[in-house]
Amino acid sequence: MTNENKNTDYNIGLDIGVASVGWAVTASNDNELLQAKKKNLWGVSLFEEGQAAAERRGYRSTRRRLRHRKFRLQLLEDLFEADILQTDPSFFIRLKEAFLSPKDNQKTYKGSLLFQDESYSDVDYYQKFPTIYHLRQHLMTTTEAADIREIYLALHHIIKYRGHFVYEQQTFTMKGSQVGDDLRDLQAKFRLIDNYLLDDVNIASLSAILTDNQRNKSTKVRDCVSLTGAIKESKKRLTQLFNLIVGLKANIAILFDNDSFLEVGKDVTMAAEDIDVKLAELNDVLDEEQFSIVEKAQYIYSSIVLHEIMKGKNNVSAAKVATYHKHAADLAAVKTLLRQDDVTMKERQLFETSYANYIKNTNLKEDFLKRAKGLLEHNRFAGNDVAQQLLADIDVDDFMEVQRHRGNGAIPFQVHQQELLAILENQGQFYPFLREQAANIQKLLTFRIPYYVGPLADEKDSQFAWMIRKQVGKITPFNFEEMVDIDASSEAFIKRMTNKCTYLLHEDVLPKNSLVYAKFEVLNELNKIRLDNRPLDVALKQRIYECLFMHKQKVTHKQLKKWLAEHEHLTVATIQGTQKETEFATSLTAYHRLQSILGAEFVNQPENQAMVEQIIYWSTVFEDKKIMRRKLEAYPQLTAKQVTELANLRLRGWGRLSRKLLTEIKVAAPLVDNEPQSLLALLWQTNDNLMQVLRQKDYGFQTIIDEQFEGETRGLSKEVIDELATSPANKKAIWQAIKIVKELEKVKKTTS
Fold first, then answer.
1. Exposed, middle or buried, 347 (CB in 10 Å: 0-12/13-18/19+)?
2. Where are the domains of the chain?
3. pLDDT tens digits for 229-238?
């Protein structure tokens, strides 16, 4: 070992993991392990992995969602208050006490809480309307004036449980066409990754199978795969796709034929309670096109669940009323079967206990159905038509369904909106204020704070807020556009989410799908490939880029070999250097997608590049189609069809380099033609990759980068690490490594 007091230059080696940092100190001249205080300078620091603030964010989002819901319901109460108080002054007070225990000392009212009229009590109400859906259905169809309190209760329920906003910009219908439309979108998304799994499928037939309530999930998958007529290998992938769509367990690694997804992509179930968490994990590992396929599968799953809920009815209330009566009939039928002499008391008790638990907690549905199926499959019921029909109902998930269950989350707000409008129109003839306030009541259902506005708090009052106001005052769905500067808030949102360049820390990064950044990524990978262990010459590299990458969504080894044989008369056995085993990891995705909308000639014209890049930028930042449409109005040369298609275009992700680094800094390049060249131009005219260009002293990029920050560099503080665009686990590991290096520097100073 090297003498610990010997003054020598030294190296520090680090092995940085998410929960540990290994370290060793060696002499620079011979790599011998150094000592301090007679102890070898090597070791490992263990620590708990840094966690994302997902749990905290989840609680915060839930609190905000419930607060907004409470606020909407209070606004509804304000609209009804004057009319209801005329007939029942204590109605709202009693309503608030309805959730208190009868033993609560703060409870003022006893007995009936909703209705305390002499001729109408809660008992009368529930006999007339066993569920809230019975009331909603009645209010849409009755030709008589309903009790104003009943109208309030129905609208209160609609606004409280208003449904999802997946199809926010669409008119939603009950005709099942949504599944077909989404399947066509899914077909197109597979084409984007040069995958033609669904190309030869009759979409109408596929939609009919998926929305057939008489088929169970497994049968739907089998019939859909059979309909495609796929070969054996494709059948495996199609099975996983349709498993995903119908809500069975799916393996994403098999679907995309990529073993790297095995850990996070195993047993993905759209029906799972934690599906949002699972989708977030998948978003981290799948590329943009792959994740968009999973997202579209989720949309189709929701549409299928909605179709199952509706059961051919015109509105959700009619479907729920039918479900209620079906549940009662099923229960009566089972009770009749249980009264048979050969059914034991234990069997009756087990079923009754299982049923009671299911009614209290719908998460126990699987256990209940298993118990019911086991009972009905007993030999004693083999020839009983009623028992066999109940078993068939269990098989297609149509047995004793309850009113409130997780599947209700698949109902879009437009379905509830149709009922709300029908109630307002029908009862508005008896209560004029309903028609006068119809627009405001509808806003309580349909309004959602745009994500790019964020929390409705002033920035100085919350670290999570960035909203910019037009004026001071209370913000409601009715005055939102007058109170909030939407465009300024969206710009503030952009600034918050845009990272800084890896090398020019004051410059914003480009969108990952920027034409400039995509070209950089492709060239950075293409420049270092080898054909049968021989590097590409520059001219051949440029032809590959122009003839393959500019014409194909993805470029595989097989496609490149075929092109080389046909156009360059080169026979190549192996291709080395790509980031993936059998294909290039990089592509010109946005270039191809914009070509299909704007035309190849338009996208390729230099004078249109700024416009195309701006559209890509907006598409990356804004998910909201309304704001995209408003932004696109800046380009009158776009047709209405192009505006619609561009508004629907959703690009994701940010690069790690800035436009200034790639195209605006120019250096003399003696190795090329001694003319000033940008970094991107050097990647095009040489076979160097990014690191080679930056480190090439003849180019001088590193000197320019260093000059940008002369006198501005900050120390490596915890605050600097926190600002890095990486995961919490990586940030913690980096900070631990920095602390170890600082400690070792101190140790060496005291022992040298």
1. middle
2. 176-308, 316-404, 451-497, 509-704
3. 777 778 888 9
487-490 own/partner pairs: CB under 8 Å, 24+ apart:
489/452, 489/453, 489/454, 490/450, 490/452, 490/453, 490/621, 490/622, 490/627
Q: Tokens representing 486?
A: 């939407």
Asked if residue 213 lies in contact with residue 304, where contact means CB atoms within 8 angstroms, the answer is no
Within 10 Å of residue 348's Cβ, how many Cβ atoms? Answer: 14
Q: Is 126 helix (H, G, I), strand (E, B) or coil?
A: helix
> pLDDT tens digits, residue range 510-553?
999 999 999 999 999 999 999 999 999 999 999 999 999 999 98
Phi and psi torsions of 343, nearest 5°? -90, 125
Contact 1, 21 (CB under 8 A): no
The DSSP-derived string for 566-632 is HHS----S-EE--SSSSB-S---HHHHHHHHHH-HHHHH-GGGHHHHHHHHHHHHH---HHHHHHHH
Q: What is the rounded CA–CA span in Å between residue 569 and residue 448? A: 60
- For residue 180, count other CB atoms closer than 10 A to its CB: 19
This prediction's pTM: 0.73
Task: List pLDDT tens digits, range 595-606.
Answer: 999 999 999 999
> CA 149 → CA 128, 418, 425, distances in Å?
15, 21, 17
* Residue 448: CB atoms within 10 Å: 13
